[in-house]
From TrEMBL:
<keyword id="KW-0378">Hydrolase</keyword>
<protein>
    <submittedName>
        <fullName>Acid phosphatase</fullName>
    </submittedName>
</protein>
<keyword id="KW-0479">Metal-binding</keyword>
<dbReference type="InterPro" id="IPR036523">
    <property type="entry name" value="SurE-like_sf"/>
</dbReference>
<dbReference type="GO" id="GO:0008252">
    <property type="term" value="F:nucleotidase activity"/>
</dbReference>
<dbReference type="InterPro" id="IPR002828">
    <property type="entry name" value="SurE-like_Pase/nucleotidase"/>
</dbReference>
<comment type="similarity">
    <text>Belongs to the SurE nucleotidase family.</text>
</comment>
<dbReference type="GO" id="GO:0046872">
    <property type="term" value="F:metal ion binding"/>
</dbReference>
<feature type="signal peptide">
    <location>
        <begin position="1"/>
        <end position="15"/>
    </location>
</feature>
<keyword id="KW-0732">Signal</keyword>
<dbReference type="Pfam" id="PF01975">
    <property type="entry name" value="SurE"/>
</dbReference>
<feature type="domain" description="Survival protein SurE-like phosphatase/nucleotidase">
    <location>
        <begin position="18"/>
        <end position="214"/>
    </location>
</feature>
<dbReference type="InterPro" id="IPR030048">
    <property type="entry name" value="SurE"/>
</dbReference>
Length: 302
């Protein structure tokens, strides 16, 4: 009787502790929109991201240094300390170093101030990156570097990237449509994964999520038009093991590039990777993610 009653209840949104980073810098509009969307879903979020544009810096890592020029978009003055925050929004933190260094500072250090330490961080997200991170590009992406660093530290890491846009300051007015759409879609994936229960991802696994063009001048102008499709990061080779079987695919997932490039609709790709190599996960690990995200996954049109 109780079980039946519970099963009929709507899925409740679970509030979790999130560390948010990127490689385009702490003052870029996409990361601020994502912060707003995540907190709008009642999550407790710490933004900890590079002081400057650190696009393409992969898994580089270095001790943060005092600013020798202004933070990006003049968001902090030259000469500012190596690590700092927005005095009126202290959850917005910059770290004058690489994406990996900044997400680790959020997980290891800021979590003591806003949560109850590193083990209380539930999930780590990075992006949405300005520009897609598909296939081999994942190897040099700092956004992927940040997400994989989190997974290596035992915190499930998700990387989000959007095809549309160029690096834009946080205080732009109006907010570009693509930025709001990507933030909502990223929140959707994050909340759906959280609703699937712990562990959110298998050990050493991260997700690479890419969005097709969106907003003004595109045919994808509203979040409800988008569909998520399970994909591979890299093109399979002769020695690649089989992928998870789904959508009648005979054991081979489409590449994320194929998904994002599908012209007859608005298809976002979700790939499952190993954090240490950034390469594709096994069919078993893909199956775990497929089960967790089945409520939002679709098949490509045939
Ligand atoms: C950010 O860095 C990347 C990689 O060096 C570069 O391609 C891009 O133009 C930079 N963006 C800005 C706004 O300077
Ligand atoms: C800091 O926060 C204030 C208050 O929300 C805001 O007006 C300002 O634009 C923010 N600046 C940066 C660089 O985040
Ligand atoms: C961050 O935390 C680590 C681990 O506790 C510590 O070793 C490091 O000194 C801290 N970094 C800063 C800048 O406070
Ligand atoms: C998430 O996306 C799915 C599928 O695209 C959609 O059905 C659902 O309404 C979305 N949920 C939210 C909270 O946006």
């Amino acid at each position: 009787m109780h079980l039946i009653t519970l099963a009929l209840l709507p899925v409740l949104t679970q509030a979790v502790n999130v560390v948010l980073s990127n490689d385009d810098g702490w003052a870029e509009i996409n990361i601020r929109q994502f912060y707003n969307a995540l907190t709008g879903s009642d999550n407790s979020v710490i933004l900890s991201a590079p002081a400057e544009n650190e696009s393409g810096t992969g898994s580089s890592d270095a001790t943060p240094t005092r600013l020798s020029s202004a933070c990006e978009f003049n968001s902090c003055p030259s000469g500012s300390p190596a690590i700092g925050n927005n005095a009126s929004m202290p959850r917005f933190n910059y770290v004058n170093s690489y994406p990996v260094t900044s997400i680790r500072y959020g997980i290891q250090n800021l979590s003591n101030t806003y949560f109850s330490g590193p083990s209380s961080v539930d999930i780590a997200v990075a992006g949405p990156n300005v520009g897609a991170n598909l296939g081999l590009t994942t190897q040099i992406s700092g956004t992927v570097g940040a997400a994989t660093e989190a997974s290596k530290e035992g915190i499930p890491g998700l990387a989000f990237s959007g095809t549309t846009g160029s690096q834009t300051a946080w205080n732009v007015n109006p907010v570009p449509a693509y930025s709001a759409i990507y933030a909502d879609l990223s929140t959707n994936v994050t909340t759906t994964l959280v609703a699937s229960g712990k562990p959110y991802l298998p050990a050493n696994i991260w997700l690479n999520v890419n969005f097709p063009p969106a907003g003004s001048g595109t045919s994808c102008t509203s979040t409800s038009q988008f569909r998520f499709v399970l994909s591979r990061i890299n093109t399979a080779t002769l020695i690649s093991g089989k992928d998870v079987t789904t959508c009648g695919n005979g054991g081979r997932l489409p590449t994320e590039m194929t998904v994002v490039d599908t012209s007859s609709g608005c298809y976002a790709s979700i790939s499952v990777g190993h954090a240490d190599t950034k390469l594709d996960a096994t069919a078993t690990e893909q199956q775990t993610v497929l089960s967790k995200l089945s409520g939002i996954l679709s098949c490509l049109p045939s």
